[in-house]
Design goal:
- This protein is of the alpha/beta class.
- The chain has a single domain, classed as Dehydroquinase, class II (Rossmann fold), CATH 3.40.50.9100.
- About 30% of the residues lie in helices and about 15% in strands.
- It is built from 6 helices and 6 strands; from the N terminus they run αβααβαβαββαβ.
- A 6-stranded parallel sheet has the order 5-4-3-1-2-6, with helices on both faces.
- The longest helix has 14 residues.
- The termini are far apart.
- About 35% of the residues are buried.
Amino acid sequence: MMSASPSPSSARGTSAAKAARGERARPIYVVNGPNLNMLGEREPEHYGRTSLAEIEAELSACAKAKNVALVFFQSNEEGRLIDCIQDAAQNARALIINAGAYTHSSVALLDALKLLSVPVVEVHLSNIFAREAFRQHSYISPAASGVICGFGAAGYRMALNAILAQTDMPQTGMPQTRIKDTAP
């Protein structure tokens, strides 16, 4: 935790210190799990009619207004999600994750998320605590700084704003990026 006026020895957490260490270019990863590529079509009564592409466009506009870089990734495969999280452990300054159904079943994703030393925000479009009993447990929450659920697509924007408020991140001016899942 930073004090109101940090001394030079405690300046590690300040924006200037982060910039001096080269962290200005580190993007926020936005990672989405299985079936989220079907948003807008799949169970709109739970997940809404907004597509993943529309969520990414809105989040990109929000990030651009704040001069923040994002990297988007979606996969239906657990191993590819783990690969992306491991990449984020080396390259991200924060991570937003909607692990979809893997939230309720994947210890492997939890283990990967534990590699990160940056903020992690878990997002769910629906209120998982008002759903079926099996959806009310998250294996990944222990690795998250916070959880946002039940606010639909707006949850992603809330997660981005929470990360920026929590970390006092410097501005980057980097473009938004989409990593393609190149699974055969």
